[in-house]
Design goal:
By secondary structure, the chain is of the alpha/beta class. The protein is built from 15 helices and 34 strands. Among the domains are: about 100 residues, Immunoglobulin-like (Sandwich); about 100 residues, Immunoglobulin-like (Sandwich), CATH 2.60.40; about 35 residues. Helix 13 links the parallel strand 12 and strand 13. It is globular and about 85 Å long.
């Protein structure tokens, strides 16, 4: 039986992996591993490899760190340096180590530590697969992976074939998919009947993996982190890791701690002291903040403390600001416009306390979290407010995060409110909602029914994508001239199965005369039409047919003329 093209490619890949780590496999015994790479995926994989091997580990965070790190290690260690071929911090680091008085050191090189080091662990049969875009999911599973002797693959659609080849060469017992991964990754791993933890909320996912850890090792002490960096205790597997949130502790984390048997939380990172205080007050557990270590720099009579070795990993940028605050006398409404400086969609929920000169206060706010697309504006209108004084300010307290239930960050400020007197005359009509397969986008056709130019921004709620409900939106308001129509696109890849699950879509349109103050809202449910081929493609096909017909006619007439001459 032939291997086939896929089988041959997989065999070639495995042979290349074996060849690339031949130096590693033939190296001498070691008692401590040092990661020498600027790539977080290498650092994570090297430290995880060391923990599975049961040896100590360290990682470099800069070129200057190379010598400093050695000051904190026992000179009797046999050091193995695992160095990135593409992005090392220190060149010839093994010589630096030997010259520093260590017993021995050897250096091996890797192209991709995550795919190569697993070949040194032939006994591993359990695997956890996470996405490799953002690192917090890898941090969440690290303790459980050490506890269960599982290798963590950092997967996406570009490397899933190599991962599948590695799995195919082993007797696989368990595969877990944790958090969001590319659709191609799920499809490739479906043959292994994987356990899937993906609620759409990284804090809820974190609680699930925490509970699985505690079932096997019911400890009373845990590590608290925001999941934004690699640190030795976080990766060790001695305690599970629970995410605290950056500034605000999400309700589900607070409630989980209160209902659990956890007694002590070791919070790693000096910038999380506020979260530590919040947790201690709201849950009653003891919180120890680990923010420094003894200094390793020699030559000082009194050694100062030194910051922890932290290797920061990619995380989504979540940043929300208040763009403007206006009170519209013509409509008796407060208009707050937020600006997202994030690179992912986020949700926010505000509480506003108006303050007038007479100290009158009427607290208002959002009942449900509000969606805002990356780098977009969103105006929230609070109607039926009667402010007669000319001076007005607000105290703003807004929570925000990457899902409606993960509002971990805080926007808090006091701002003066601008007084305006504006009647918005914008009027629009939603004509069609179509999904274009060629453009891989939802296309919303909007007509401007009024006598003024309008701006519009749209979003679709409760869209089912790969069995998960999501909110998606356009990136920025689009201008629609008076009396004209315009299409607004929301880019989103949808499979045929997804389209079957979304025969109708819920649409919200925000619109108005002012680009950064879309104070009007239209909501509706629309049947989703699917367009499989574009008009441009139809035109090209028609043109090609016309050209082909012309060629046929020319050839027929040419031979007919030759026959007549004959």
């Amino acid at each position: 039986m032939g291997l086939g093209k896929a089988g041959i490619l997989n065999m070639l890949f495995l042979l290349s992996i074996v060849a690339s780590i031949q130096g590693v496999a033939s190296a001498q015994d070691f008692t401590h591993i040092i990661s020498n790479s600027e790539d977080w995926k290498d650092v994570y994989s090297i430290i995880h490899y060391a923990n599975l091997e049961g040896v100590g580990s360290s990682f470099l965070v800069s070129p200057k760190h190379g010598s400093l790190l050695l000051n904190g290690l026992n000179r009797n260690n046999d050091i193995r340096v695992i160095t990135s071929k593409k992005s090392p911090f220190v060149i010839n680091y093994d010589d630096v180590i030997k010259n520093s008085g260590f017993k021995d050191a050897d250096e091996v090189f890797v192209e991709n530590a995550n795919l190569e080091l697993i070949e040194e662990l032939p006994e591993i049969s359990n695997f956890i697969v996470v996405g490799n875009t953002y690192g917090y999911n890898a941090i969440a599973v690290a303790p459980y992976a050490v506890l269960t002797d599982s290798w963590v693959f950092l997967a996406d659609k570009t490397n899933i074939d190599e991962i599948d080849a590695i799995l195919g060469s082993r007797d696989v017992e368990n595969v877990m998919i944790y958090g969001f991964v590319d659709r191609d990754v799920r499809e490739a791993l479906s043959k292994y009947d994987p356990e899937i933890i993906d609620t759409g909320d990284r804090f809820k996912d974190n609680i699930e993996i925490m509970e699985k850890y505690l079932e096997l090792n019911p400890v009373k002490q845990i590590v608290l982190s925001n999941g934004e960096f690699i640190e030795s205790e976080i990766m060790s597997g001695r305690e599970p890791v629970l995410f605290t949130g950056k500034e605000n502790v999400p309700d589900q984390i607070r409630d989980y701690i209160k209902s659990s048997d956890i007694e002590v939380g070791v919070l790693v990172g000096a910038d999380l002291v506020g979260a530590a205080t919040n947790i201690r007050r709201s849950t009653g557990i003891s919180v120890i903040v680990k923010f420094a270590r003894g200094a390793r720099a020699p030559g000082k009579a009194i050694s100062a403390v030194e910051g922890l070795d932290l290797f920061y990993i990619p995380v989504p940028i979540m940043d929300l600001s208040l763009h403007s605050a206006k009170y519209n006398k013509a409509t008796s409404q407060l208009e707050l416009t937020y600006k997202s400086n994030s690179n992912i969609p986020i949700f926010f929920k505000g509480t506003i306390t108006p303050v007038t000169g007479s100290e009158e206060r009427t607290r208002i706010g959002d009942v449900e979290p509000v969606f805002i697309a990356p780098n977009d504006f969103k105006t929230i209108v609070y109607p039926d407010l009667d402010f007669t004084e000319e001076e007005l300010s607000i105290e703003l307290f807004t929570l925000y995060g990457d899902s409606p239930s993960s509002l971990e960050k805080i926007l808090e400020k006091t701002v003066d409110v601008e007084m305006i007197n504006v009647i918005d005359r914008c009027d629009i009509s939603i004509e069609n909602v179509v999904y274009s397969k060629p453009k891989e986008s939802f296309v919303i056709e909007i007509e401007n029914m009024g006598n003024v130019d309008c701006w519009a921004d749209v979003e679709l709620t409760e869209v089912i994508i790969d069995s998960d409900e999501m909110t998606i939106g356009s990136e920025g308001a689009v201008k629609i001239d008076s009396g004209k129509r315009k299409n607004i696109l929301i880019e989103q890849e949808m499979t045929d199965s997804d389209l079957e699950d979304n025969s109708f879509v819920n649409l919200i349109a925000y619109y108005g005369e002012r680009e950064d103050s879309l104070v009007k809202i239209f909501q509706g449910k629309f049947e989703l039409r699917v367009k499989s081929i574009s008009f441009a493609t139809i035109g090209l096909v028609a043109l090609a047919m016309v050209v082909l017909a012309a060629i046929v006619i020319f050839v027929v007439m040419f031979f007919r003329r030759d026959d007549d001459d004959w």
